[in-house]
Design a protein that fits this description.
Blueprint: H1 15-23, H2 27-42, H3 45-52, H4 56-77, H5 81-86, H6 99-122, H7 126-139
């Protein structure tokens, strides 16, 4: 995540590099990061982030990652991930369809609606994400 003042937070798969990156903002957040990341993925993001971290740049970065992971997990669990990724149109029913074809067509038509509903439900922490981004802007003289 890039900040307006030119600073940035770059996280990846290497524990030591992540610690160094987070330490640029707040050492206690860097020390808490590896311990609390799994809690972040398994619990409401705003609760875990507010309890364990202080810097808004880290909270915004981790909340964004959590929303993406949760969204994809929900969609995969309900066999809807391909609907989002491929975004293909539903083929029309053939002439004189069978009941099985009608049922399959109906299920296929509702998949996008189901995916949208799951996406909306999975990003319940988005308001916290927006407030952390707003604080970042305000703290850097924009807003």
């Amino acid at each position: 995540m890039h900040c307006i003042d030119g600073s940035y937070l770059l996280l990846g798969p290497h524990k030591d590099l992540n610690h160094s990156e987070i330490s640029k903002f707040f050492i206690r957040d860097a020390d808490a990061y590896p311990r609390d990341f799994m809690d972040l993925l398994l619990s409401p993001a705003s609760k875990v982030l507010n309890l364990n971290f202080e810097t808004d740049v880290l909270k915004a970065t981790l909340a964004t990652d959590a929303v993406i992971v949760k969204m994809q997990s929900y969609l995969e669990a309900f066999d809807l991930w391909e609907v989002v990724v491929e975004d293909r149109p539903v083929a029309p029913l053939p002439p004189n369809p069978t009941l099985a074809q009608i049922k399959a067509h109906s299920e296929e038509k509702t998949k996008k609606f189901k995916a949208k509903t799951l996406i909306q439900n999975s990003v319940g922490d988005q308001s916290s994400l927006g407030s952390w981004h707003a604080k970042l802007l305000k703290n850097h003289g924009i807003g």
